[in-house]
Amino acid sequence: MLPVLPVLRGELPLMIHAQGLREIRSALKWSESQPRLRIVIVGGRDAWMLAAELAQRKIAVIYTEVFDLPARGSDAYDVQFSAPAVLHQAGVTVAISEGLDRASASGQRNLPYIAAQAAAFGLPTDAALAAITLIPAQLHGISDTLGSIEPGKDASLFTASGDILDIRSEVKQLWISGVEQSLETRHTRLAAKYRARPPAK
To answer: What is the pLDDT of residue 145?
Structure first.
């Protein structure tokens, strides 16, 4: 059951899925008549075009379009890569997501690479990391337990061989709620199996 009352009381945000400029403008216009609601734009392909208004009204964006093609022939090739940076520089709170359509659920493992692409096109590295950790936790009302490493929070964290936004880095250890998890998968088992095969003669 959806937690409707916390949304109506402004305790949790109302997530409005909107991509195009017209959709986002319509959502903003409608929200003017709902002053108690906390609005978050999800998707937000053209949100960069309204960055100043979104910042002024303190409306966050969960941006899902980093690797999408430009929507218009007049758009620069990197318009989607740089959109999170444009929003951040305007003062908009930005989270980054893979989205919910197509194969996005299984693609959540690619979040560090999506954030890294946004960082390569102007989003500060600390903001890119927060966009896939602390900010989503804040927007969903669970930052008291998740999203950052602080006393009193769930010990869900990992160690890596380098910068997690660098595709060359490897996750070395993982804990969920303080319990260390095995990193063994079908892929690691197959890799070990074929590394141990007899050399070809």
So the answer is: 92
- The Cα 14–Cα 87 span in angstroms is 19
Q: Which domains does the chain have, with CATH numbers?
A: 4-147 (3.20.20.140), 155-201 (no CATH)
Structure confidence by residue, pLDDT tens digits, 46-96: 999 999 999 999 999 999 999 999 999 999 999 999 999 999 999 999 999
* Amino acid letter, residue 87: L
* Cα dihedral across residues 3, 87, 114, 45: positive or negative: positive
Beta pairing class for 157-160 and 171-176 = antiparallel
Start-to-end CA span in the chain (Å)? 63
pLDDT tens digits for 150-169? 999 998 999 999 999 998 99
- Rounded-to-integer distance, Cα 106 and Cα 25, Å: 31
114 HSE (CA, 13 A, CB side):
25
**Spatial distance between the Cα atoms of 12 and 139, rounded to a whole number of angstroms:** 8
